[in-house]
Every structure is written in C-alpha cells, then in structure tokens.
Amino acid sequence: MATERITPVDLPEPRYEYGADDHVFVELAEEMSFTANFKAMAITQQVAERDIDGVVENCPANASYMLRIDPEIIHPDDLIAELKEIESEIDLENYEWETRIIDVPVLFEDPWTHETLMEFRERHQDPDGTDLEYSAELNGFDGVESFIDAFVGAPHLVTMVGFVPGLPWCFQMVPRNQQLEVPKYVEPRTDTPSRAVGFGGAFSVIYPVQGAGGYQLYGRTPIEVLDTEQTLPDFRDSMVFPNPGDILNYRRIDREEYDAIREEVKAGTYEYNYGEVRFSPEEFFESPAEYNERLMEVVE
C-alpha cells in the first residue's frame, strides 16, 4: 500500500467558452482528477504571474477554471490565445508551486452537528443511523472509528474555494482506489452549523457559515475559514483563509481542546498552525503515502 503510485490521466483538449461579455470559462476535463486540478492551478498561477492586463478575477476549480475580464481592455479571443500558449508551455511533471500545510483540528461526533443530523433524519438514506455510521458501512469499514482513521489518515487538498464564500472543497490525497465516497443527503437540510466538517461525493468541506447543506456531517472545527471582519491575525490580507492548492491536515481533538481554541478565536488571538512547502506533483504521484508523510512534518 505504501509504495502505491498515482498514474496521471490523459486529459482531452481544453474547451474554451465565453461567459457572457466578461468571463472566459475553460473546461480541462469532465471528470475530477489530480491531473486536471493540478493543471487548472498551474495555468491560473501563470495567469496571475503574468498579471495580464484586463483580467479582473482568476478562479481555479476542480477540473476547470474561469477568468473575469474587463472587455473594454482585453477581448476574450485575445485572452484565449494567451491561455492556449500558457497551456502548451506547462509541463506538470516538472511544475512545482509554493503552498501551505494547514492543521485543522476537528471534534468528531460533536453535539452540534449531531443534533442537526438527527433533526433531518427523514431526509437521509439511513434514517436509523448517523452520517458517520452510514459512511463507514458504505465504504466497507467495520465501524465509525476506523472510518474516521481513514478520513484523517491522509491530508486533503483544497481543489477550489466557492459555492458559498470561503467554503473549501477538498480532495483526499490518496490513490483513487483508496478514495472515500458517499452520496449527499437524499433531500438537502435547511440548516447546518457553521464550521461543520462535511463530506459528499469524494470531497470534504468546511461550512463557513450556518445555512442549508446536503453533505454528510462528521464533526465541527473550532477554527474559522471565513472572517468577514478580518479580526483574526491570519485574515489580515483576506477574509478567506484556505486557498486553492493549500493542503489541510484534519486532526482529531477532544472537547477540552475544542473549547480552548474557541476561546482564543473569540478573543481574536487564535493563529493557524501551518507551514509552507514547495509542492511537487511528480513526487506526489510517484509515492503519495511517503510524500504526504514528509509534507506533514512541517505542522508536527
């Protein structure tokens, strides 16, 4: 298992589309894969580095990306021509980028998400169990504890941020045959606690604010991913902390640590535990388990 590698996939030709008058959308693949996501990040990083005049926003996604432009400054066709040039120059095997390994403490089976998931049981595939029990059984684990072990056993890559402001979508950094997968609720909930850690399809998420949701609920983190007032030290440059390309290390904590961290957050003194690394897709593909272990050393 430890020596299993990830084989990069062959991607189709990108599909370039206009989005009204002021957006360009590029689909790199219909299916999520590390190759497609890494390519989306590499291209959008190069767009940012070139500081192309007329590009207003730059948004990588799971297997695509979208740019908002000022059409008075740059014509979409001119931008598409430059994007094709960037795409042709990128060699993922030799491409690397600076990223962050971020410690994310999680109180699994917490009282708040448990109350919510039990309130909406009639909308779930398994009305008699919990979301963790359902996920464990569906993925062939002998119980909740072993399922959580697998969930926190490898880091999760932030593949995109969106759907609601500040919500990180994360894909676990393991070979496809080890990916955990669960469907969303049969019918979405009308309520989800803020900072709930959820899972749907093959993506983990952290709900930045209270609201509707359909992902399975596993726990709650005491830390914020969205700070609209930018009062916490790590939010001084942006109201959103996780960025595409960041790597989250979900870590089990108990109620005592959860409460202690919340006190720091409420006091405005909490600072994320994270370290910076240079990420190599080639080294990750070659030996994901060993490479993940090396990455995690910066937050231990």
Automatic annotation (TrEMBL):
> What's the superkingdom here?
Archaea
**Protein keywords:** ATP-binding, Hydrolase, Nucleotide-binding, Transferase
Q: Where is the Carboxyltransferase domain?
A: 14-233
Q: Which Gene3D superfamilies match?
A: 3.30.1360.40, Cyclophilin-like
Has UniProt tagged this entry with the keyword Transcription regulation? no
InterPro entries per the UniProt record, alphabetical: CT_C_D (IPR003833), Cyclophilin-like_dom_sf (IPR029000), PxpB (IPR010016)
Offer an example of a GO molecular function term for this protein: transferase activity
Pfam families for the chain: CT_C_D (PF02682)
Name of the protein in its database record: Carboxyltransferase domain-containing protein
Organism listed in the record:
Natrinema versiforme
